[in-house]
């Protein structure tokens, strides 16, 4: 049996590491997932009303989009550091930073989704006596969903990658394993945590894609109607 | 507010800017890495993307590359490269990571810029007897310019952010001011470092926006349109 020796030999791939540190890996993954989920949900809860506000008052679109772009431009390490005096070494610091990053993508995609709603659909709903609330909830929201979900997927994937930087304040989920692995030159730990991180991003993307399909059964008949638009937004904004 | 006045004191203290680990040297390091890597990435990505866009092939690759780039944590790549034998060659891991993360946005945006040029315009140019090179140079490139510049801006933001993160993998650059501050529990230094990095990123982004407008080949026509 050569498996236990891979720890001593400091191999990149080591089954013994995964087996013996399963608890540590699970804890880090759980932390990674909850930080990501909380950040994206809070981001969405802020981005949605913000997008509605911008749509109602187009004069605000310049400032709102400008400020969120500024957030996006600031490097993650600097963003977390700037929040340090306000929030201290806490999970709240990491979540706040990630929320600010997600806003750029989410606000733009919610706006793009709402803008993609055909005017005729709105007119028809109004003609049928829909009030503004019901119009938004029953007509605009479902039609805007594909572009919005494209935004949520993009925000989630980049949040999972950015959460690793939270290792700076010891709330980085798998990122913390990566930085501690660097300090002790522990190759198996760094590689395993990195691979888990990418797998997490892929899994989240597929899960959200499935959710989108489930929520918008009518798009399947039309083929890839919404995909082209979503794809373009995705590339132009964040690359 | 304490942290801000502390950071201001740190920034205005001359001693913090001098020496091997001073802010001046770190800033120079940062700019040097970012500039070189951006130039290399442009040389690698732009000709390929423009050519693929011109002949209209390789779209799936160009689009998926930037999605993959987003899913891969920068920090993980930096640390992994540092632990490989490359890590013994000083700054090589940072340079490699910078190029790896700058290429996808450049490639994707330049390719899409070329593909989104109105086919009817290209056909008209061909019909007027323009050679493929003339079509590329006089029609496609000017029309693709805005997206090429978007790609350059995204890549630059990415490069500056990655160069900052290099500090967490034990490399140089402005991020070192921040990580050193964390190690000594010096909040003023952490905030001061973050302010320098943030200001640099915003300044470069602003400069690129202005440069994009000034050098736009279609500037006069776009503004009158």
TrEMBL record, chain A:
**Record's InterPro entries?**
ABC_transp_perm/SBD, MetI-like, MetI-like_sf
Q: Where in the cell is it found?
A: Cell membrane; Membrane
- Decide whether keyword Transmembrane helix is in the record: yes
- SUPFAM superfamilies for the chain: MetI-like
Q: How does it sit in the membrane?
A: Multi-pass membrane protein
- Main location as per UniProt: membrane
Transmembrane residues, as ranges? 33-53, 60-80, 86-107, 143-169, 189-211
PROSITE patterns per the UniProt record, alphabetical: ABC_TM1
Identify the Pfam families for this entry: BPD_transp_1
Q: Which family does it belong to?
A: Belongs to the binding-protein-dependent transport system permease family.
Q: Which PANTHER family match?
A: GLYCINE BETAINE/L-PROLINE TRANSPORT SYSTEM PERMEASE PROTEIN PROW, OSMOPROTECTANT IMPORT PERMEASE PROTEIN OSMW
What is the official name of this protein in its record? ABC transporter permease
Give the source species: Streptomyces pyxinae
Q: What is the lineage of its organism?
A: Bacteria, Bacillati, Actinomycetota, Actinomycetes, Kitasatosporales
From TrEMBL, chain B:
Location within or outside the cell: Cell membrane; Membrane
The UniProt transmembrane annotation reads 31-53, 65-86, 92-112, 143-170, 190-215
Major localisation: membrane
Q: Which CDD domains match?
A: TM_PBP2
PROSITE patterns listed in its UniProt record: ABC_TM1
Does the entry feature the keyword Cell wall biogenesis/degradation, yes or no? no
Q: Which UniProt keywords apply?
A: Membrane, Transmembrane, Transmembrane helix, Transport
Q: Which Gene3D superfamilies match?
A: MetI-like
Pfam families according to UniProt: BPD_transp_1
- Enumerate the InterPro entries for this protein: ABC_transp_perm/SBD, MetI-like, MetI-like_sf
Residues of the ABC transmembrane type-1 domain? 27-208
- Which protein family is named in the record? Belongs to the binding-protein-dependent transport system permease family.
Query: Any idea what this protein is called?
Result: ABC transporter permease
What organism is this sequence from?
Answer: Streptomyces pyxinae
């Amino acid at each position: 049996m050569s498996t236990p020796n891979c720890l001593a030999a400091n191999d990149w791939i080591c089954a013994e590491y995964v087996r013996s540190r399963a608890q540590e890996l699970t804890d880090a993954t759980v932390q990674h997932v909850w930080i990501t989920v909380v950040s994206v949900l809070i981001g969405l809860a802020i981005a949605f009303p913000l997008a509605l506000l911008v749509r109602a008052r187009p004069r605000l679109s310049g400032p709102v989009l400008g400020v969120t772009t500024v957030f996006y431009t600031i490097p993650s390490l600097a963003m977390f550091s700037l929040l340090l005096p306000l929030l201290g070494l806490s999970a709240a610091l990491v979540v706040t930073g990630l929320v600010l990053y997600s806003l750029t993508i989410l606000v733009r995609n919610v706006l793009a989704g709402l803008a993609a709603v055909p005017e005729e659909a709105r007119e028809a709903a109004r003609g049928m006596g829909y009030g503004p609330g019901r119009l938004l909830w029953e007509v605009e929201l479902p039609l805007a969903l594909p572009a919005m979900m494209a935004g949520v997927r993009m925000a989630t994937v980049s949040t999972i990658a950015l959460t690793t930087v939270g290792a700076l304040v010891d709330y980085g989920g798998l990122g913390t394993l990566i930085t501690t692995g660097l300090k002790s030159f522990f190759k198996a730990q760094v590689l395993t945590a990195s691979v888990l991180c990418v797998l997490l991003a892929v899994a989240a993307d597929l899960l959200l894609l499935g959710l989108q399909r489930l929520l918008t059964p009518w798009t399947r008949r039309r083929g890839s109607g919404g995909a082209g638009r979503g794809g373009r937004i995705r590339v132009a904004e964040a690359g | 507010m304490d942290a801000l006045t502390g950071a201001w004191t740190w920034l205005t203290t001359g001693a913090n800017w001098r020496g091997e680990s001073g802010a001046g040297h770190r800033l120079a390091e940062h700019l040097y890495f970012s500039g070189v890597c951006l130039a290399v990435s442009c040389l690698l990505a732009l000709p390929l993307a423009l050519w693929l866009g011109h002949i209209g092939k390789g779209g799936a690759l160009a689009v998926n590359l930037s999605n993959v780039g987003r899913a891969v944590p920068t920090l993980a790549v930096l640390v992994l490269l540092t632990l490989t034998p490359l890590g013994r060659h000083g700054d090589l891991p940072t340079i490699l990571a910078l190029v790896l993360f700058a290429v996808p946005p450049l490639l994707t945006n330049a390719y899409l810029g070329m593909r989104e040029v109105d086919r009817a315009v290209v056909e008209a140019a061909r019909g007027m007897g323009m050679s493929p090179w003339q079509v590329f140079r006089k029609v496609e490139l000017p029309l693709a310019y805005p997206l090429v510049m978007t790609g350059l801006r995204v890549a630059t933001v990415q490069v500056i952010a990655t160069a900052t993160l290099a500090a967490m993998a034990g490399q140089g650059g402005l991020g070192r001011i921040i990580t050193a501050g964390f190690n000594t529990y010096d909040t003023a230094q952490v905030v001061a470092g973050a302010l320098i990095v943030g200001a640099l990123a915003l300044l470069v982004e602003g400069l690129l926006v202005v440069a994009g407008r000034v050098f736009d080949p279609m500037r006069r026509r776009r503004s009158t349109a």
